[in-house]
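Reply to thread "Modeling small-molecule complexes from scratch"

Following up on the discussion above, here's a worked example others can learn from. I took a protein sequence and the SMILES for pyridoxal-5'-phosphate and predicted the complex. Inputs first:
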Amino acid sequence: MIDLRSDTLTLPNQEMLQTILSASLGDDGRTSESGRGEDPTVNALEDYAAEILHKDSAVFFSSGTLANTSAVLTHSKPGEKVLIEPLLHICKSEKVVFSQRVGQLHQVEYDVSDAGKPSLASIERQLKKNKLSLLIIENTHNFRGGICLGADEIDNICNLAHHFGVPVHMDGARIFNASAFLGTPASRLCEQTDSVMLCLSKGLGAPIGSLVAGSAQFTAELRKTRKLLGGMMRQAGILAAPGLYALKHNREQINYDNIHAVTFANRLKGLSRLFVNRPVETNIVMINTENSGITAEQLCELAYGRGLFIRPMMKDIARAVFYSAINADDAEQASEIVMDIDRLLMRR
Ligand SMILES: *Cc1c(COP(=O)(O)O)cnc(C)c1O
């Protein structure tokens, strides 16, 4: 079975697992005045992340959802308005900051262009019309097929928001996939954003963990929010050690995931009924069934029967995600399976 459901399927290798056994540990929940805990491995991970992102400091979380939630709730108070687009992971999947039971924030929407990029004109309109506590962007964009925002595009959005006194949070769960595609350091991509979240547990290959980086003042508040939400951990160095290994050793290899995704998508250029949403820039490929007479769910069933495991993301869009366990041969085989299904649909 070629399993392309998600890059969260990456498993730690022996070398990464070894780091757990030799990690120096302490109680990360026992904090100094500055808010830092006593686990040296967590501190090393946070410092390394801050260093490569050129931010004052970073905070370790058990999940991307908790990381995003803590960041957004640090920027905003209940009842405030946040400028978003509905296809953000935070809105479509996580939902917690806009839930009436938890975050109690209100959504104000910005439009996106045909290319899936935030519209500056629309953002400006909403900034003028509303008192907003935060603007959120996502890079790469999961539900839009892994497309990237470049440094200039991000700068323009941030400059506009900052002009109105509104901070910007970037959900950079896959920021290193964006960095590899654009040829731009991750630090440059988040240079103007007030906070940035990244996942260690996706293409980077760590078993668990995410980070949020930002200014010293912001991250000090962020640590308080994390504690409020029950996100503080104790000997979290056993999670931070493989996370640190991932950040040090696996950033470069992410480019291959992007390349395999593009190889897969390019082989599907001649499809008759199914088609791939373009452009394919990073490790996510969206296969569109809207002209095929079947739903994404049905496509996934047909694929599963032929040895390819993919999942529906929307009614007529199935997602294939590439990660380190998937090699060029797998990508080629996976494309053969999709072509086979396309031929079947043509005969129907
Ligand atoms: C996976 C993901 C998250 C959340 O990460 P979890 O660790 O699964 O909670 C946030 N944003 C985006 C864009 C993601 O793809």
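What I'd highlight from this example: The longest strand covers residues 132-138. Residues 63-65, 68, 89, 138, 142, 171, 173, 199, 201, 210 surround pyridoxal-5'-phosphate (CB under 6 Å). Questions welcome below.
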